[in-house]
Amino acid sequence: MMDRSSRAETLITDGVCVYFEGVKAVDDISLSVQRARIHGLIGPNGAGKSTLFNAVSGFVPLTAGRVTLGDTDISGWSPTRISQHGVVRTFQDTRIFKALTVLENVELGAMDAGLHGNAGRAASMEVLELLRIGHLADEIAGNVALGDGRRVGIARAVATQPDFLMMDEPAAGLDEKETSELADSIREIRDERQCGVLLVEHDMSVIFKICEEIHVMDSGRTIAVGDPDEIRTNAAVIEAYFGSGHS
Ligand SMILES: Nc1ncnc2c1ncn2[C@@H]1O[C@H](COP(=O)(O)OP(=O)(O)OP(=O)(O)O)[C@@H](O)[C@H]1O
Ligand SMILES: [Mg+2]
């Protein structure tokens, strides 16, 4: 494990651009996530949210700009190195090991935090309890329901003891009740672990319920930044979601 005795307080993108051939997927995005805060990243389909996510977590190269974690410039680092330094993401398709038990999946995360054997198991059980799926510890991960599987993926990320936890559409495919409960769980993770959260989510009920700061993108660019009350009533945001492009 890396020495992370001093926890970074900020995760910042500074003028980040990601251009694909013919598409400015992310175009000059500067955003700042504080530790222990929940920061939403929203925008219509194709706005560039996932691409920004991939850029921050090292899965696509930056065309321009930089990403800093505390005082450290992490631009261009590999995904593994970035996660070892405390910036950990989940994937929309969950990516759990279906043949392992729920607990074993989370123990893999704990190992990344240097916790093996009994210590790893105890830490993993704590995370499962935090995510309210402790009763599923010994189930085969491939057999649990979609909503629980989503929680297993999040639990594994939390078990790595991130300073910043990035989630791309954690509520996708969940019903209303599961979605609401997941929002509560994300807030509980933040409260207990004091990690910063960067949350991409289409379900506005989740965003408005738990985010303290919201960054809105459209066509690769920032169109608004503010707290939920500011974003709810922002003219540019309303236009992006309900404006002329939509029939
Ligand atoms: N690997 C790639 N090569 C070329 N273009 C890409 C690539 N990945 C994304 N894009 C384009 O970049 C733009 C932004 O896509 P992105 O997936 O980041 O949007 P998004 O905001 O996550 O959308 P959604 O809400 O649908 O998930 C889109 O025009 C998309 O087609
Ligand atoms: Mg996306």
End-to-end CA span: 52 Å
CATH topology of the largest domain: Rossmann fold
Q: What is the number of helices?
A: 9
| Biggest sheet architecture | 6 strands, mixed
Tell me the number of structural domains.
Answer: 2
Largest sheet, order of strands side by side?
Answer: 6-7-8-3-9-10
| Global structural class | alpha/beta
How many beta-strand elements?
10
What's the rounded overall pLDDT mean?
Answer: 93
Describe the structure.
The protein is of the alpha/beta class and 247 residues long. The chain folds into 2 domains: 146 residues, Rossmann fold; 72 residues, no CATH class. Helix content is 37%, strand content 25%. The chain has a 6-stranded mixed beta sheet, sandwiched between helices. The chain has a 4-stranded antiparallel beta sheet with strand order 2-1-4-5, with helices on one face. Strand 4 and strand 5 form a beta hairpin. It starts with 9 loop residues before the first strand and ends in a 5-residue tail after the last helix. Magnesium ion binds next to helix 1.
